[in-house]
TrEMBL record:
Its EC number is 4.1.3.3, 4.2.1.41, 4.3.3.7. SMART domains: DHDPS. This is Dihydrodipicolinate synthase family protein. Keywords: Lyase. GO terms for molecular function: 4-hydroxy-tetrahydrodipicolinate synthase activity; 5-dehydro-4-deoxyglucarate dehydratase activity; N-acetylneuraminate lyase activity. It is an enzyme of class 4 (lyase). It holds the Pfam family DHDPS. The keyword Magnesium does not apply.
Length: 304
């Protein structure tokens, strides 16, 4: 399956039971809602997926189950976030063997690599997999920026095809398009810049709150791409207080609470994460409750 690198792609949460095992029943319910809403890919094992807490056998089971559920409707993309080049290559090979059709890749974890080391890291992984790759560029959280000059080198490799643009600099979408045209597909990775990035020409949106609100997210994307900007903007303005829950250190807990609100998940997280407590929990619940009370009626968007 070729990946078009467009549309809405949820960075899905990993559902757990009260006994801290993988909850595939709830996971399947959420995925089916994503597919019904019109997402164009599913991304596993990111920050929202709590990948750093998953055992290797759990990651394998997660890919296999996701491949079964989506049944070829959309590509399954596995996030790679490793400390070593060797580990990243092994993770990429396992993902491919288990049915993933693409990779999202972070720079090396824990070590602040130089520009040369970062390019070499991505290069070696790309040379050792046939899967297409989206580079996750998030210097705010991971302290390494993949610059345009670095992408110039990386794009010599055919299977490096897209960027999850999370620099928080909206003008970077235009810089990328001006320099690379359609050679490097741009997917925004910051929920609070979702519509703005699409209007600047981004090809897609890797979302977080889409996990709880798939229809609203896909509707914004479809309406924006169809030129129905005012309709997209109306939904987006309603959505913004929820989207701001994604740019927060407790984004996993926040989004899982939102999933509870829409019946698409549970709030079980894996320690050391713990469910929200006290005043912060009440603040987040108030945002979710108010948004649900004022949830907009969506236009027919799926055929756009």
């Amino acid at each position: 399956m070729n990946i078009q690198w467009k549309g809405v792609m949820p960075a899905v949460t990993t559902n757990f039971t009260a006994e801290d095992t993988l909850d595939f029943k709830m996971f399947e319910k959420n995925l089916n809602y994503q597919l019904d809403a019109g997402v164009e890919g599913v991304i596993l094992g990111g920050t929202l997926g709590e990948a750093s807490t998953l055992l290797e056998e759990e990651k394998q089971d997660l890919i296999l189950e996701t491949v079964r559920i989506v049944d070829g409707k959309v590509p399954v993309i596995m996030n790679i976030a490793e400390q070593t080049t060797r580990g990243a290559i092994e993770a990429a090979n396992k993902a491919e063997a288990n049915g993933a059709r693409g990779l999202m890749m972070l720079p090396p974890m824990r070590y602040k690599a130089t520009d040369f080391e970062t390019v070499e890291y991505f290069t070696q992984v790309a040379k050792n997999t046939s899967l297409p790759i989206m580079i996750y560029n998030n210097p705010v959280d991971y302290k390494i920026e993949v610059t345009l000059d670095m992408f110039e080198e990386l794009l010599k490799l055919d299977n490096i095809q897209a960027v999850k643009e999370s620099t928080r600099d909206i003008s970077n979408v235009t810089r990328i398009i001006n320099r690379f045209g359609s050679r490097l597909k741009v997917l925004t990775g910051v929920d609070t810049l979702g519509l703005e990035s699409l209007l600047m020409g981004a090809d897609g949106w890797v979302g977080g709150l889409v996990d709880a609100f798939p229809e609203e997210t896909v509707a914004i994307y479809k309406l924006a791409k169809a030129g129905r900007i005012q309709e997209a903007l109306t939904i987006y303005r309603w959505f913004l207080p929820l989207l701001e829950l994604d740019i927060n250190a407790q984004l996993v807990q926040n989004i899982k609470l939102a999933e509870v609100g829409t019946g698409l998940g549970t709030e079980y997280v894996r320690a050391p994460r713990l469910p929200l407590m006290g005043a912060e929990r009440e603040r987040v619940l108030a945002i979710i409750d108010n948004s649900l009370k004022n949830r907009p009626t969506l236009p027919e968007y799926k055929s756009l």
